[in-house]
Amino acid sequence: MNKVFLSGNLTRDPEVRYTATGKAFARMGIAINRRYKDKESVDFFNLVAWEKTAEFCGHYLRKGSRVLVEGRLQTSSYENRDGVKVNAVDILVDNIEFAGGKRDSDDGGNSYSKPSNSGYSRNREETSNDKSPYDFDNEPIDPEDTPF
Above pLDDT 70, what percent of the chain? Predict the structure, then answer.
């Protein structure tokens, strides 16, 4: 099984490009703090996202964004400009999520505020009509009909 889960901060803005066939891909870096004994260290990894995930990254993520990443490892080798063979390990992103709050834009992006009520969940105003979530329009519930 090849599966990794990472939590860290992006080290650079996602760079979105497109293949010759029109598939989007994004490259970015992540820094992960690691503690051992009384010392602290930082590990850096390259992330590669494809298609809709790549477009999401390019649109919503920036350098410094705190993210949770689910993906898999991929090794590759290439020859650099000096003709030296380089081995690389990339994380191919399967899923990426925000892990921090919404950035405050007036302080240079160095602090975070409380997360906003946005995203895929419906706003409270849309669902609030003074009705209990357990109110089934006075329909009786037969315990024999419940699956548990």
Answer: 68
